[in-house]
Amino acid sequence: MTQHRFDDEDEDNVPEWVDQVMATVAKEVRRRRKELGMSAQNLADACEEIGHSIPRNVIANMESGRRANLPLVDVMVLAEALHTNPICLIYPVGYVEQVQKLPLRHSEQTWDAMRWFTGAEPGEPLALDLMLRLFHQHESEQRALHAAESSEQDEAWKAKSAGDATQREEALSAQAFYAERVALAKERLRRLRATIREEGGTPPTLWPSRFASPFDNNNHLEEDF
Predict the structure, then answer these.
(1) What is the DSSP letter of 109?
(2) Could you list the pLDDT tens digit for every one of the 225 residues in the chain?
(3) CA 74 to CA 17: how far, in whole Å?
(4) Are 133 and 127 in contact (CB under 8 A)?
(5) Given the DSSP bridges, would you call strands 108-109 and 98-99 parallel, antiparallel or unpaired?
(6) Residue among 96, 133, 131 at smallest CA distance from 113
(7) What is the number of other CB atoms lying within 10 angstroms of the CB of residue 153?
(8) Residue ranges of the domains in the chain?
(9) Alpha-carbon gap, residue 61 to 46, rounded angstroms
């Protein structure tokens, strides 16, 4: 369902924003259901198995536009039953060109609306929530740590299997470089997690190291941070 831009003079002819949102979700539920080869009853059964009943007739009424409301909990369970994410039912990127993000707004690209909704762009004015920015940064730092660890391990393997002294020295030098980057990444994570706690939040669970032994005291344990 592509929703086109509108001018102030024909604003009254635009369907209500709530109806537009519901229609977008309903159409995507139907598209996804058929893509998976599921009947409305199959979908209802899947919702029941998840633990939140959405009867077949309710699903049929939603898809046909006869349902008057669409609770958020239903969207969450429908998404799980359809093996997708709730945000993809609300903003079907690639299937709907434009959506109206909020009432009395011009339509915009669905991808832009999704990024606004999820706060996927920390630098944007609408994504200035401090804790959200800190969590984005935390994930970025964990990726940097894992990349540095991987490179350090690669160089350690090169040093161990080097064919001559020159190659071994080069590998050991590179290994030391990446070891320093690992240490710096860990320190940035420590400081970032301390900031999250100072702001009254709980830091996310640290990713386990892919290389450390379960008996290694340096295995990214929570108490180390």
Answers:
(1) E
(2) 444 444 444 444 445 899 999 999 999 999 999 999 999 999 999 999 999 999 999 999 999 999 888 999 999 999 999 999 999 999 999 999 999 999 988 999 999 999 889 877 655 554 557 888 888 899 999 999 999 999 999 999 999 999 899 999 999 999 999 999 999 999 999 999 999 999 999 999 998 876 654 434 444 444 456
(3) 19
(4) yes
(5) antiparallel
(6) 96
(7) 15
(8) 8-125, 129-224
(9) 17
Q: Among 162, 185, 189, which Cα is nearest to 174's?
A: 162
For the chain, how far is it from start to end, CA to CA, in angstroms?
Answer: 48
Q: How far is the C-alpha of 55 from the C-alpha of 134, rounded, in Å?
A: 41
Which one, of 86, 189, 88, 186, lies nearest residue 135 by Cα? 189
The pTM (predicted TM-score) of the whole model is 0.67
Architecture of domain 8-125: Orthogonal Bundle (1.10)
**Do residues 43 and 33 lie in contact, with contact meaning Cβ atoms separated by under 8 Å?**
yes
- 3 state DSSP class of 3: coil
